[in-house]
Amino acid sequence: MEITFDFESPIADMDKKIEELKNSAQNGDLDLSDQIKDLEKTKNELKQKIYSSLSAWQRVQIARHPQRPYFADYLNLIFEDFVELSGDRAFGNDQAILCGIATIDGKPVVAIGHQKGRTLEENMDRNFGMAHPEGYRKAMRVMKMAEKFNRPIITFIDTAGAYPGITAEERGQAEAIARNLRDMSDLKVPIISVVIGEGGSGGALGIGLSNKVLCLENAYYSVISPEGCAAILFRDVSKASQAAQAMKLTAKDLLNLKVIDEVVKEPLGGAHYDYEKTALNIKVCLNKYLSIYENMTSKKIVEERFLKFRNIGIYEDISKKAVKGKNLKKSKKPLKK
Q1: Residue 16: how many CA atoms within 13 Å on its side-chain side?
Q2: Could you tell me which of 197, 184, 127 has the C-alpha nearest to residue 308?
Q3: CA 293 to CA 183: how far, in whole Å?
Q4: What DSSP string runs through 152-176?
Q5: What span, in angstroms and rounded, lies between the C-alpha atoms of 197 and 98?
Q6: What is the pTM of this model?
Q7: Would 111 be classed as within a structural domain?
Q8: Has residue 56 been placed in a domain?
Q9: Which domain holds residue 226?
Q10: CATH number, domain at 220?
Q11: pLDDT tens-digit readout, 29-79
């Protein structure tokens, strides 16, 4: 069953009209090819108009589309010879994060990513892509193995956030993410992250402290979900669309703010319309950056990663400007008690 959003209803109406004409032509032995061709052209123009002017909230909806490709889909389309590695060697195997060794066009890499499920049963097993502490510890175990064998690390981010439940807190959720941030900052191999759907909060950053962060055109990357932001700021979850606009969480906004390094194009309408084309676009970008790091020293790789995050954000120190030119004299009057 194809799922459409409210803003896509005009396109769905056009599809319905085109289908009706095709059925009429087939059943009545009529030549309606010209009318169908005109409607197809009108529909394509409509799609271009709608998808080129999407709001932030509409892009969030596309990022959450249940038919959107997940990490496991990209594994089959981008990588070869993937071998999954399981467990954190401390508690268990969190299926919300997939890890393993693979190759990309013959180049050995490590691939790590959040994994959601398609069915309710799969989502229960994958915890809707929200990892427990053992998921982040597993990811770090595999990252350190990648460093040992000098393999670049590629991570795919797609989570609403780290699991906020009691079981995760009992097993040290905050400590696990904090440890990943600390250890990822010092890894001697390049790390490239791709935001493929939702990029929520510390759950995303737990595998996203990277040299390069790429973001699919209709994905988002944010400190909190639009609904969470609306609940806190406006005391009204229904204002999620307003919050999404204010948060600057779209790929275009993130690129302008220099939070990400490149926007990866999606097929018109979203990645769920063409898995293979989306995967190819990602693969081209990954190969481009992997070739850059082939001849870069480990010291330079670590330094680049540090400077990337150190330079995010713009600030201005006005303290010196405020007193510049003023003749400040010491007061001889005693301080009042």
Answers
A1: 8
A2: 184
A3: 20
A4: -EEEEEEES-S--SHHHHHTTHHHH
A5: 16
A6: 0.87
A7: yes
A8: no
A9: 68-310
A10: 3.90.226.10
A11: 667 777 888 888 888 888 889 998 899 999 999 999 999 999 999 999 999
